[in-house]
Design goal:
Blueprint (H helix, E strand, L loop, with lengths): L2 E2 L3 E4 L2 E5 L6 E9 L4 E8 L5 E4 L2 E4 L4 E8 L14 E9 L22 E10 L1 H97 L5
Parallel strand pairs: 3-10
Antiparallel strand pairs: 1-2, 2-4, 4-8, 5-7, 5-9, 6-8, 9-10
Keywords: Coiled coil, Membrane, Transmembrane, Transmembrane helix
GO biological process, one term: endoplasmic reticulum membrane organization
Family: Belongs to the VAMP-associated protein (VAP) (TC 9.B.17) family.
């Protein structure tokens, strides 16, 4: 989130420092030129001895941007309740085309005549390492919970796949058993049909043999019973 006027925009709109005793802290500000003109800016603060600003003044080309680094100097004691009353002010004004802040008029930021000077105020916020650590812990906890959830989902998915494979295996075994049973029944039917065919052939052959025997006997009987002629 950022603050801005017609000429420039500033991101973020407040300066946040991780405050630690006897250690410097840093914060970056991005200044964006929203116009087709060259715009000069200047940074001021209510506590110039506490902060080191680079660059504290510069010229931004049309539609371009510039990054400002603000350094909080090492402090020997904590502020009451970690509250900071320091403020920053960024002034901006249109200037003739130039890339060198030293070439712009010295009265660029003087409020006189019809000169248009925009001003943006930024407040300062201090955070303690414990708060940062707490935020990191919560984030890590969230990541751990997310990872655990993913592992549980993967585990459940694996269990479902195993159960499905077992079910498919059981169905396959059942189908194989049914195929074997059908094959056995088919073999039995074939054997029964073969036995019936053999029995029918035997009866036919016996009847035919009997008929032939009767005819032969009849012929022999006629032959033997007929008297010889003189």
């Amino acid at each position: 989130m950022g603050g801005g006027g017609q000429m420039i925009s500033v991101y973020p709109e407040e300066l946040t420092f991780d405050f630690e005793l006897e250690k410097p802290s840093y914060c970056n500000i991005k200044v964006v030129n929203n116009t087709e003109h060259h715009v000069a800016f200047k940074v001021k603060t209510t506590s110039p001895k506490k902060y080191f600003v680079r660059p504290n003044a510069s010229v931004v080309q049309p539609w371009d941007s510039c990054t400002i680094t603000v350094t909080l100097q090492p402090q020997k004691e904590y502020p009451p309740d970690m509250q900071c009353k320091d403020k920053f002010l960024i002034q901006s004004a249109k200037v003739p085309p130039s890339n060198d802040i030293d070439e712009i008029p010295s009265d660029t930021f003087n409020k006189d005549g019809d000169k248009v000077i925009e001003e943006l105020k930024l407040r300062v916020v201090y955070t303690s390492p414990s708060q940062s650590g707490l935020g990191n812990s919560e984030e890590e906890s969230g990541l751990a919970s997310s990872a655990t959830g993913k592992r549980d989902m993967h585990k459940n998915s694996s269990n479902e796949e195993i159960q499905m494979l077992q079910h498919l295996k059981e169905e396959r075994d059942t189908i194989v058993q049914q195929n074997h049973q059908l094959q056995r029944e088919l073999d039995m039917l074939k054997r029964r049909r073969n036995r019936k065919s053999d029995a029918g052939f035997s009866l036919t052959f016996a009847a035919f043999a009997g008929l032939v025997g009767i005819m032969v006997g009849f012929i022999l009987n006629l032959t033997l019973s007929t008297p010889p002629t003189a």
